[in-house]
Amino acid sequence: MAASALVLTTAGIGFAALNADEPAPAPVSLTATADAYVSTKSPTQRHGWSTRLVVKQNESTSFVRYAVPAAAEGYARKATLVLTRLTASNPSKIQVSTGPARWTEAVSASTGLRAGTAIASAADDGKSKELRIDVSAGVQKDGALNLALTQLAGRGGSVFGSRESGATQTKLEISYVKGDGSGPQPSVPPTKPTAPPTTGPTKPTTAPTKPTTTPTRPTTTPTQTPTKPTTTPTQPTAPPSTGNPGCSISDKLVPSCGAFFGAAANPLGSESWDEALTAFESTIGRTLDIAHYYNSSPKLFPTAEMIKRAREPGKKRILLLNWKPEMGRTWAQVAAGDPEVDKAIDAEAQYLKTTFPEKFFLGIHHEPEEEVKPAAGSGYTAKDYAAMYRHVVQRLKANGVTNAVYVMNYMGTPHWGSQPWFNDLYPGDDVVDWIAEDPYIFGDDANWWGPFTTGVNRKDTYTNPSWPGFYTWATTKHPGKPIMLGEWGIDEQTMLGMNKADVLRTVQDGLKKMPQVKALVYWNEATFHTVGTTRLDSSATTKAAAREVLNSGLLARQVK
Is the Cβ–Cβ distance between 306 and 291 less than 8 Å? Predict the structure, then answer.
């Protein structure tokens, strides 16, 4: 997407031939030629195609590259790095350092790239639309300029727009002064906005990840190696029963009444994942219908701890297990039948048949949009993803796995839904039982902060006018498929006349308006960039609203 600024293209232009008596060269506003961030929480994840640049103390570093034009003879450069905020954050201190000379947008934390010599730092209030940092000391010559952004102090990280975000991407503003640059800096004309100004952080073009990798989402939980229980009770492969008279749960785990409520209960403080689950249930005053965990090959799952929670007497839960089976291979390589990946799939199939015959939800590499590389031959095209997903499901079925209910889990934001390759991600009705999206509710824009229906069917009429909303897309393109909120969370804030409790109290009415939504799986975390504080005990009013909404009506306990 083109940047909103009126950018003067400067590559290949030199000013040395200018007459010294001529006026100073006009200021320029440069957009990045490459940018990416890396995270130690997802060391092999590549974020070079994300719409975000994340900086978080001791965790996430962002890299950005500009092509600096030659300076006119007799003039010095004044350079300002302009970072446009995507979401509000806590106050912090951001440092700009020299970056490594050679890197690509395929960089990850595992490559070990580090920030170099410090150039400048600036206090970030976490609220202003832009953070401007004087980096003149680092812009001494023309050519490639590599910068690294880190957070020296702060809590929760800061999130700025990358070049993939379009209007919110970073810029390097350069102006020229006579002599050595010690004189006053000429002002740089402001860039032309493409959207009405806001009083708070700029509207994001995509919801978080997942970390993410997005972003902070774990790849495996819990960490111990799964072991087969010493005594495995005989379990039927039929769906669980419901405690609601006159209601039932289908073979594909679709409730005939209401909707399941589940959660990924992230550890808070020193909790283990298992402790976090029971603590979350204590907070909301009920047992979850769905317990959500994340896994990656070659570790086998579900672990003994997960199985214990699925079978707990009087508190049985359906497992939602997200699985990344690639083991470092590309999607195309998995689809082609990589021997090591196939071996791991076969081992998982055997483990499921002998250890866990209960019905469960299986998501295969959730939120793929941010990792798509549309160039032919990349191994990560949307069609490569669909082929990878199909291969995994078909191999599990061929190995006799009959209890998995397959979930295709999208990020589902207007930005990604508007991509020309978006429909190519879908693997096919024969291998998809549920369609899921991850609609976080946060920010200061009416498209992102509002009632439940705003998140589930989010639109963006200004930036992505052709996107009808995920619920509309899913029910139109794939009618009859049940819809799951594979992850969703609400920030603790008051904005546009609503607070978190107000948003929670719109859920029951929203489910009535969107009857295909059959499962809501909450993301409970203390601080989740870029969203904020999603935990449901973030305030007394939020906790009270959560207990009220999640224990009644369409969200009353389903699983017996």
Answer: yes
- Could you report the per-residue pLDDT of 37-93, keeping only the tens digit for each? 998 877 877 888 788 899 999 999 999 999 988 876 778 889 999 999 998 888 999
* Cα separation, 473 vs 426, whole angstroms: 12
10-residue mean pLDDT profile of the chain (560 residues): values are 36 37 75 91 80 91 91 81 92 94 86 90 92 92 91 90 88 80 39 35 38 38 40 55 80 96 94 94 97 94 96 96 96 97 98 97 96 96 98 98 98 95 98 97 91 96 90 96 97 95 98 98 88 95 98 91
Tally the residues of the chain: 560
User: What are residue 134's DSSP bridge partners?
Assistant: 80
The pLDDT, as a whole number, for residue 242 is 73
Provide the 10 A C-beta neighbour count for residue 212.
Answer: 28
The enclosing H or E element of 290 equals strand 290-296
- Work out whether the CA dihedral 153, 158, 161, 164 comes out positive or negative: positive
DSSP string spanning 95-135? EEEE--SS--TT--GGG-----SEEEEEEE-S-SSEEEEE-
User: Any residues with CB less than 8 A from the CB of 330 and at least 6 apart, and which?
Assistant: 378, 379, 380, 384
**335, 391 Cβ separation under 8 angstroms:** yes
How many CA atoms, within 13 angstroms, populate the side-chain half-sphere of residue 235? 22
> Which tokens hold the place of 168?
């919110």
CA distance 208 to 373: 19
